[in-house]
Each structure stands twice: as structure tokens, then as C-alpha cells.
Q: What sequence folds into this?
């Protein structure tokens, strides 16, 4: 008998993509096969994100698209998994197209939920009822088994893998939905993480990225020792076969910060790259966001990072147009960006997320055109900084991990005979475009940089 085909579409962050990879491999092990073609599928799963309104709107419009496909395939099962499933629960089942709603903590049950929906022809709901309650031991164990048992290699680039080291968040930034959909912070046991990375290395993985909503608050008490992210980095550094270690995302907190920076400086495999969102440069707005630092404190952390790890590349995130953000507040953010000298910054316009403190207590006062103008202005300030920093690479030779063929042709890349255009990344997360043989995919290579744009370097294979 042919196996049932599953198509999975992911609409979210790195954490969400990791869940997609885990769900794919678990379903394959349960006898399903994965298809890229939605029209071929017996089961369609949408892995969702609730962080921004736009991402949720895309999911709703995708459900509309599936409704048309389902008209000619009424037995097709449609499942919504991930953060939006946890946030909206049975409301999603009001869409006639949807058969399964499964939250992030219930993904180990996904194969069973599909089988039940197929056999019993009824809708299935599996979400956490009290999301901020301490995680139940059995639920945690199910997630732990799921996480460690399934391969989580990135299929596009089998040399790299993402490894979750913690789940959830306890920070309650007022704009953020994560604590309400991913639950309280739980750090995974270090020995399980290390065992998982050893297995990945045995399978040819060379780069691991350790994932957490606030990865630097990782803490695991074992016997008399408390493991921090710094301890974990040092231990991963000792695993044979792993060449590069990255970690995202960091919360600007002093606790462990120096230890983590020293671990980076002392461990040749830990990439000199720090992604640490600031969100705003105004202390008034940071307080309203319930971020527990000041702009000056944040900049001090960057100074510390640069003094301990010379050459470290730093990236940041910002929200513009938070409720009541004045022009002066915004200019404080511009000043912070100028001082921070990020290699890259991700800038978002504020949108209220239902159920968060800022949505409940603060009016969304900033008109969209003002958010848009501030977004464009901040991007252009950052672009100039990125351009200057990337120029410094001109003429230098950089080591990259080759990801594979470039998806779109970069017109100003260097010529390379008959070789196709490839992309790779430096340890500082620059995309590098060059011509070379496809056989380099998944391998490290050296490239001499000949040109640069703010976010991309172009060069010749050495
Ligand atoms: S630290 Fe703040 S922004 Fe980040 S996931 Fe936690 S609550 Fe959300």
C-alpha cells in the first residue's frame, strides 16, 4: 500500500522551522512520506507563528487556498500546528477546512492525531489548557524523547543542524505572545543535548546552532553544578566533527554575559557572532516594553563583548512605533543604532498581538504612516553602517560554510567560468556569493572577497 503523503508548510522563526523538521522526520518514521507538492498531499500541515499579525494573516489566507484544493479532495486532512494553534485553539476548527489543531507542546502526538482524524472522521484539538502552569513531567518527557529521537538536520544543508536547548520564556515583554504560546522557560538537560550533537556530528553535521527564545538564560542544575550557556558552549567545542557553533537569540542580561563572551573568545569553534535584540533606544519605551535594561546598560554589554571578543559581529532587532513612542524616543533609537555599529539589524513595525499586556493596556497610538517612516529611516541609518562594515572585508580571505546553489542570480557576483553561483555564510553570518562546483555544498571553503553590498559579500573561490 502506498504511504500517505504529507505536505508541511512553515510560517515562522528558526524555532518553528526546527519543529517542522522534527515533525517531518517523526511522520516519516511513522510510515508517512513527505511531499513538496501540496496538490499531491493526503495531509497538509501548516506550522504557524503568532509573533506578528502579518504571519497569522498569511496562515488564514493559506487556509482559504486549501479550501479550494479540498473541494476536489474532501478526504484531505488539514492540520494547524504551532503557536497560532495554541493561541486560537478550537477557534481554528471553525474553519471548515481545518481538521486538526495541535499546539507546540503536543507535536509528539501529531502522527496519532492524523491517524485518528483519518479513521474517525472527526476533528482533533490538542493544546495546553493552562499554558503558564509548570510543565508536567510526562509532557516534558514526551517533548524530550521527540526532540532527541528524531534527526533534525537541515535538508537543504545537511552539514548544519539546529538544536533546541530550551523552551518557552519567562520575560513577559509586554508586546510579545511567546510566553503565552510556548509556556514557561524549561532548559533541556546538558547530557541529552551533548549526546544529540555527538550523533549529529557522527552523521556529518559540521555546524550546530543552539536555539532558545533567550538562549543566554540557559540554566540546568545537575548535582552540585549549575550549567550555563557558557558551560554548554565549552562542552560542544570538545565534540569531534563539529567545526562551528552558533547560538540565538540573546536577551540583554548581565547574568552569565561575560562567561559566555569568554567561552566565545576561548573556544575556536564558537562563531564570533552575537544576535542581541535591543528593541528600542529609549529608556521610557524599554520600561513600557518591560525590557529589564536601559539603553546605556545595553551599550555597555556591547562594549564588554567587543573587548572580550575582538572582531565580534553583532546584530540587533528593533520595534518602531510602540504605543506612545515620541519623535524623541525614536531619535534615541537612531542614536543607539549609530553607537551599536551592528553588522545587521532587523526592524519591525509594532503591531498589537491579542492577549499580550501591551494589547490589553496600551492603545496603538502611532499611525501606520509614522511607523512606516520610522522603519524606513532606521533601515537607512543601519544600511550605511552595514555598508561601511562589509567594505572592510574587501580583499580579505574568508572561511565559509557552503550552503548550495544561490536561489536567485546575483548579477554583480564575480565570473567563474562554467561553475554555477553558490552561496555560503561566514562565521559572522554574512552571505557570500561566489562561483564554484555544486559538490562544495555542505563543505567549508575559502573565498577571496572582491565586492560587497551592505549584507552580502561577493568573491572568488580560492
Ligand atoms: S524575551 Fe521578550 S521578546 Fe523574547 S521571547 Fe521572551 S517575552 Fe518574547
A:
Amino acid at each position: 500500500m502506498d504511504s500517505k503523503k504529507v505536505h508541511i508548510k512553515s510560517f515562522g522563526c528558526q524555532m518553528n522551522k526546527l519543529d517542522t523538521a522534527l515533525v517531518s522526520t517523526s511522520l516519516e518514521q511513522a510510515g508517512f512520506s513527505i511531499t513538496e507538492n501540496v496538490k499531491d498531499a493526503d495531509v497538509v500541515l501548516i506550522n504557524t507563528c503568532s509573533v506578528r499579525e502579518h504571519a497569522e494573516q498569511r496562515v488564514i489566507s493559506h487556509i482559504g487556498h486549501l479550501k479550494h484544493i479540498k473541494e476536489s479532495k474532501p478526504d484531505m486532512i488539514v492540520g494547524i500546528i504551532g503557536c497560532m494553534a495554541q493561541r486560537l485553539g478550537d477557534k481554528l476548527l471553525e474553519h471548515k477546512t481545518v481538521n486538526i489543531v495541535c499546539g507546540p507542546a503536543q507535536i509528539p502526538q501529531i502522527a496519532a492525531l492524523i491517524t485518528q482524524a483519518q479513521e474517525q472522521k472527526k476533528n482533533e484539538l490538542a493544546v495546553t489548557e493552562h499554558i503558564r502552569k509548570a510543565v508536567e513531567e510526562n509532557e516534558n518527557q514526551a517533548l524530550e524523547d521527540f526532540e532527541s529521537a528524531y534527526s533534525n538536520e537541515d535538508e537543504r544543508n545537511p552539514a548544519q543542524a539546529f538544536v533546541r536547548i530550551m523552551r518557552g520564556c519567562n520575560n513577559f515583554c509586554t508586546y510579545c505572545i511567546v510566553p503565552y504560546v510556548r509556556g514557561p522557560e524549561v532548559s533541556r538537560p546538558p547530557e541529552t543535548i551533548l549526546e544529540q550533537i555527538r550523533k549529529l556530528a557522527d552523521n556529518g553535521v559540521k555546524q550546530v546552532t543552539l536555539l532558545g527564545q533567550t538562549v543566554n538564560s540557559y540554566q540546568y542544575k545537575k548535582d552540585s553544578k549549575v550549567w550555563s550557556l557558557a558551560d554548554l558552549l565549552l562542552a560542544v567545542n570538545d565534540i569531534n566533527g563539529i567545526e562551528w557553533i552558533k547560538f540565538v537569540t540573546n536577551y540583554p542580561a548581565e547574568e552569565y554575559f561575560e562567561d559566555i563572551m569568554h567561552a566565545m573568545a576561548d573556544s575556536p569553534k564558537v562563531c564570533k557572532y552575537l544576535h542581541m535584540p535591543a528593541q528600542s533606544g529609549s529608556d521610557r519605551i524599554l520600561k513600557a516594553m518591560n525590557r529589564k535594561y536601559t539603553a546605556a546598560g545595553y551599550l555597555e554589554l556591547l562594549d564588554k563583548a567587543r573587548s572580550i571578543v575582538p572582531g565580534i559581529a553583532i546584530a540587533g532587532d528593533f520595534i518602531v512605533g510602540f504605543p506612545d513612542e515620541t519623535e524623541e524616543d525614536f531619535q534615541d533609537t537612531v542614536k543607539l543604532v549609530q553607537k551599536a555599529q551592528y553588522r545587521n539589524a532587523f526592524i519591525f513595525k509594532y503591531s498589537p498581538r491579542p492577549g499580550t499586556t501591551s494589547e490589553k493596556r496600551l492603545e496603538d497610538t502611532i499611525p501606520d504612516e509614522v511607523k512606516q517612516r520610522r522603519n524606513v529611516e532606521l533601515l537607512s541609518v543601519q544600511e550605511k553602517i552595514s555598508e561601511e562594515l562589509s567594505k572592510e572585508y574587501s580583499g580579505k580571505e574568508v572561511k565559509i560554510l557552503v550552503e548550495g546553489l544561490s536561489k536567485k542570480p546575483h548579477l554583480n557576483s564575480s565570473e567563474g567560468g562554467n561553475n554555477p553561483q553558490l552561496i555560503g555564510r561566514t562565521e559572522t553570518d554574512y552571505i557570500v556569493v561566489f562561483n564554484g562546483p555544486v559538490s562544495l555544498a555542505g563543505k567549508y571553503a575559502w573565498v577571496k572577497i572582491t565586492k560587497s553590498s551592505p549584507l552580502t559579500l561577493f568573491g572568488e573561490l580560492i
Q: What stands out?
A: The pocket of iron/sulfur cluster is lined by residues 169, 171-173, 176, 178-179, 213-214, 251 (CB under 6 Å). The longest helix spans residues 368-391.
